[in-house]
Design a protein that fits this description.
The chain has 205 residues and is mainly alpha-helical. The protein is built from 5 helices and no strands.
Length: 205
C-alpha cells in the first residue's frame, strides 16, 4: 500500500510542479495582455481626441472595485511563480528567462495595443505633435510590471543568497504596491497630464 501512496504523492507533486511552470509563463503573459489591451482598467486617452473632449473622455470608474483588486493580486502573485523552478550555479535561470521574455513580449503587446486606435477607416489624425500621449501612457501603465520584472531578474541573479519565498513574494508586493500607488495618483495628476498637451509643446494645441 505504501509504494502506491508514495507513487501517487510523487505524481501529484510532479503535476503541481508542471502546473506552476506553465502558470509562471501564462499569468505574467495575461498581465501583459491586460495592461496592453485593457489598459489595466485605467482608461485610455486617444491621440485623435480633441483638446476639449480629452477632459470628459478617457475616464475609468473600474479602479478600486473588487474585480480590479482581485486582478492585480492575481497578476502580482504570478510574477513570483517562476522562482525556484530551475536554478543552477546560484542563478534562477527560469525566473530570469521568463521575466526577460515577458518584458520583450509585453513591450510588443503595448506597442500594438497603443497603435490599434489608428486601425480602421474612422481613425482620426493626432491632435498634438508626436501623437501625444501615444506610447507614453502605455509606458506609465506598464511601469509597475516593468519594475516587478526587473526585481525578478535581480533576485533570480542572486538566487543563491536570497530564499525562494522571498523571490516569490517580493515581486508580487512590488507590483501590487505600485499599482495601488498609480491608482491613487491617476485621477488627480496622471490623467490630467495625459489629457493635456505634451510637455514639449506647451499649453496651445
Amino acid at each position: 500500500m505504501m509504494p502506491v501512496v508514495e507513487r501517487l504523492t510523487r505524481l501529484l507533486r510532479a503535476a503541481v510542479r508542471d502546473l506552476v511552470v506553465v502558470a509562471s509563463v501564462v499569468v505574467p503573459g495575461c498581465a501583459a495582455v491586460w495592461i496592453a489591451f485593457a489598459q489595466a482598467d485605467f482608461g485610455f486617452v486617444y491621440s485623435g481626441w480633441s483638446a476639449a473632449s480629452r477632459y470628459r473622455l478617457g475616464l475609468s470608474n473600474d479602479l478600486w472595485d473588487w474585480d480590479w483588486l482581485g486582478w492585480i493580486a492575481l497578476y502580482g502573485a504570478g510574477f513570483g511563480l517562476s522562482a525556484g523552478v530551475l536554478w543552477r550555479g546560484g542563478r534562477d535561470w527560469w525566473a530570469i528567462v521568463v521575466a526577460c521574455w515577458t518584458l520583450v513580449s509585453g513591450g510588443a503587446l503595448v506597442w500594438v495595443g497603443q497603435g490599434i486606435q489608428f486601425v480602421g477607416p474612422d481613425s482620426q489624425d493626432c491632435t498634438y505633435s508626436g501623437c501625444w500621449p501615444l506610447y507614453w501612457q502605455g509606458l506609465i501603465l506598464s511601469t509597475p510590471a516593468i519594475v516587478a520584472l526587473v526585481v525578478v531578474i535581480v533576485l533570480g541573479w542572486w538566487a543563491g543568497r536570497v530564499g525562494v519565498w522571498v523571490r516569490r513574494v517580493v515581486p508580487a508586493l512590488v507590483f501590487i504596491t505600485l499599482m495601488l500607488l498609480l491608482a491613487l495618483v491617476w485621477q488627480p495628476w496622471v490623467l490630467p497630464f495625459l489629457q493635456g498637451p505634451p510637455p514639449w509643446q506647451g499649453a496651445v494645441p
